[in-house]
Amino acid sequence: MSIDVNNESGTEVDERAILDIARYALARMRIHPLSELSVIVVDADAMEHLHIQWMDLPGPTDVMSFPMDELRPPSKDTEEPPQGLLGDIVLCPEVAKRQGEEAPTQHSMDEELQLLTVHGVLHLLGYDHEEPDEKAEMFGLQAAIVDGWRAEQGLAGPSPAPTIS
User: Among 48, 83, 93, 103, which residue's Cβ finds the most Cβ atoms within 10 Å?
Assistant: First the structure.
């Protein structure tokens, strides 16, 4: 799996954890091991610009996903996963920090960025949360992936509660 993490935000973030959880999520979703992903960490101004440009919404947001080859997880265990460019995930640590502090189960900016990385991966794979059934599926899968990764890392407790609405 080729995953690039590029921190352009000026904020110190745990790039290794972002890389590791993205790799774990893609493996768990059975994405071809030669697929490529880019994760970019930006400041609030850059994220606000992207949010306005692509979503026509004001202010910075926490995570945005820009799919390339529209790869999907294989539907059967015997099916060979396709290889390709997944796309880009853009994260904003300033928003992640605030969300972690305001969450019912307060958690660190890095924990929020890990959650947002998985959220972004799932969006790249075609998952969405517009409808209640889609939201239940996506957030359930997101929690299972984050919890599985945390357990593998020997981190205590369940994943942070989703802060994404």
Answer: 93
Render pLDDT for 91-115 as a digit per residue (tens, 0 to 9): 999 999 999 999 888 899 999 999 9
Assign 116 to helix, strand or coil.
helix
CA distance 110 to 112: 5
Question: Beta strands 85-91 and 36-41: pairing type?
Answer: parallel
pTM above 0.85, yes or no: yes
Report d(CA 73, CA 128) in Å as an integer: 14
Residues in the chain: 165
Distance of alpha carbon 17 from alpha carbon 107, whole angstroms? 15
Residue type, 13: V
Tell me the two tokens of residue 130: 């517009």
